[in-house]
Known about the structure:
Low-confidence stretches: 66-88, 96-107, 171-183
Number of strands: 2
Shape: rod-shaped
Mean pLDDT: 75
Radius of gyration: 52 Å
Number of domains: 3
Largest sheet: 2 strands, antiparallel
Structural class: mainly alpha
Order of helices and strands: HHEEHHHHHHH
Number of helices: 9
Strand content: under 5%
Amino acid sequence: MSEKSPSLMIKTILGHLHSGVEKLESGHLSPEEMELLVEDAKELYERMIILRYKIYETNVLGVQAPVISASLRQPEIETPIDLFGSIDEPASEPEFEVTFASGESEERNEEVFYDENEEQLEDEEEEEQANEDAEAEEESTEEATAEEEEEANEEEMSEEVAEVEAELEEPAEETTAAQNANWEPEFSGDQPIWMAEMEANIRDNRSVFPLESLIGAFTLNEKLQFINELFDGSSDEFSSNIKQLDQLASMDAARNMLTELSQTFNWDTESEIVEDFIYKICRRYATGA
């Protein structure tokens, strides 16, 4: 092949490749022409590599354009080409020998300059992406930890509030045995027998510590018990009647109201729950309350 300018040679090779690709698309490319097409593609690749190296040497390194004595050492193709599939193993890239005008000759692989830079950039990008992923994961972990701590704090506060409320609902036992000794129930002539017997049992078997008020004197369990068994499950009835019982003038007035409540809500006057309720009223109107 006669000496031509590099651009003209590249155009000639491109023309061969274009013609071969058209035959390949039309299905008229013979195996021999396929071999020639592959050789043209290799030659185009090799010439472009050499030109890239020359431009790099001139523009980047400031070296005069090298004289290409370029003996291309093409390795033998050990694996036959499969016209209907891919090549079993890729052929190794050709090596180049470049002789410089100064007389110094070196064997250079022109891909080193660019490939190393490209690999370095890729490594830096991968490292940066890995750092970003690690930071994102750390932030998500911190957010999850903060949410768990907040939930734990809320649960702890809820438990503390529940304990405080339970303590507030517990009646305070403030009076002494001396105050209990001063309590003597007052009996009324029209008092029901069952109530008189319950008050006598309370006086003989229970310690009666006076209460300043019935409001807040019931525990949560006592409230639920009295509401369900004495006031037909109505918390409003329980609250309103407790307020009235708390504001009466004497135990005698409380007995009259208890009698009316027992008839209204049909209490079992022999049950322990009724005695427990009357016990609270006796404490409210005990001496010293």
